[in-house]
Structures are given as structure tokens and as C-alpha cells.
Amino acid sequence: IKIQIFGYYFNSPLFLAIENEKCFNSQRFFIQRSDKISYADIYIVHYFSYNQFIREYLRKNIPEKKILIIVSLEPPNVAIEENLNGNLFHEKFFYWIISYYRSSFFSIPNGNYIFSNKNKNDYTNIVNQFGSRKNACLIIINECHSSNNLRFEYIQELQNYFSVDVVGGCVNKAVPSSRFQTLLKNYKFSLAFENSLCYEYTTNKYWDSIQSGAIPIVMGFGKNLSHLIPNSFINIFDFETPKLLAQHLNLVSSN
């Protein structure tokens, strides 16, 4: 079986790991990475490159119906903005989807967890470490153009009652994802607000908060949150107003 990987993932190689010699399953396939269409059984394309792929593919006049795997870890509205239309070429492809949706053909969540019966953390150290942090929320916003304008309105209202530090490209300078956890380790709380309010859509904002020990505050209205760690987060929609949320944050930080 021949697999062609077409295009890139935000200027980085797409699925670089499957070419690793340590990946046993990949040795069963012939894997080619190219921006030029060649004959293959399966094509893997990031949705940013989908339209370019279709243009190149149609020029080849390949008669057989192939498997086209589209990689999309972003919310649906982003795919719509890119004019991604998978309904046009069903006579050419069997469409498989890789996304964060658990119902996808291949599901790749931004994070996961397993339950453990062993607690490796010392309770006293946790209390002391948490108490030494800044009693404030941190939110990192690099993407200014967002379909979720509610998060900006909510932040402004919350700042009237609780300290919120906003950093990132929307404020002054973009923060690389490699620095997220370093910054979050200085704060008790993190506003893990996504750029879109979509079902099951949770990015590294939540998981970076967990890894750094900051309590994530999420926008969970109309979303399935069962993929998150139980009792690990605060949902703003459990409080009628930002003021009531602020009161709860003060209670948690002093408890």
C-alpha cells in the first residue's frame, strides 16, 4: 500500500512521526512525502492544503477511487473560512477524517489522561506551591480574529472583580506555545477560553493549564466536557455572572 502525504501542517512536516523507524506499523507501507501528485492508494492532506491538492489531483485524471484522509484539528468554522468543501468529489475519493471529534474515523485529541490509584504528589507541597502563585488569571491570546467574541467581553467584565493578565499577539507580542506552561506556573488560574465555542473542541489551553498546575477556567456552554479530567476545571457557565465567578475564585485561592 502506497501512502502520499501532501502539503504541510502550519509550515511543519505533516505526521513526521509515521516516518520514524521506531513506528512499527509504518514499515508496512510505502510512504512518500511530496507536493507533486503521484499514484498512491491513500492520500493524507491537511485541510489548509486541500484546495491545492484537489487542483493538482484533477489534472492527473486518475480513474480509480482513492482514500483521501483530511487532517483537521481546528473547529468547523475555520474549515469553512478556508472554503473546504468535501461534498464535491465523492466520485473520486472515500473521505476519512482525522480530527479532535471522538466520532471521527481517526480521533486525535489535544490531550488525554488515565486514572491512577497512586498519588505521587505530596499534599503539603501542593498547597505551599499553589499558595505562592499570583492570585490572578492568565490568558494567552495570539489569535485576534475569532468567532468567539464572547471571551473578550467576558474577560473585560471579569477584570472589574478579579485580576486578569492578558498576554499574546493581541496585546503586544505573540507568545510561542513552548512558553505557555512556563508562564502559567506563576498563576493560580488560567482562562482556557478557546477561539471557537464548538462541541468537544478543547486545545492545549486546558492541557497546558493542567500540566503547569494552574486551575483551568473553561467556557463549557453547549459543549461535551466528558473528555476533560473530572473536577479539574471551573466552568464559567456554572455562575450567573462574572462577579459570582470572581467570588468563587477568591474562595478557592484562599482555601
From TrEMBL:
E.C. designation(s): 2.4.1.-
Gene Ontology cellular-component annotations: Golgi cisterna membrane
Subcellular location(s) per record: Golgi apparatus, Golgi stack membrane
GO MF terms held by the record: alpha-(1->3)-fucosyltransferase activity
Keywords for this protein: Glycosyltransferase, Golgi apparatus, Membrane, Transferase, Transmembrane
Annotated metabolic or biological route of this protein: Protein modification; protein glycosylation
Keyword Glycosyltransferase tagged: yes
Database matches in InterPro entries: Glyco_tran_10_C (IPR055270), Glyco_trans_10 (IPR001503), GT10-like_C_sf (IPR038577)
Predominant location category: Golgi
Domain spans labelled Fucosyltransferase C-terminal: 133-255
Xref: Gene3D superfamilies: Glycosyl transferase family 10, C-terminal domain
Domain of life, per lineage: Eukaryota
Recorded topology in the membrane: Single-pass type II membrane protein
Entry's family note: Belongs to the glycosyltransferase 10 family.
The protein's name in its UniProt record: Fucosyltransferase
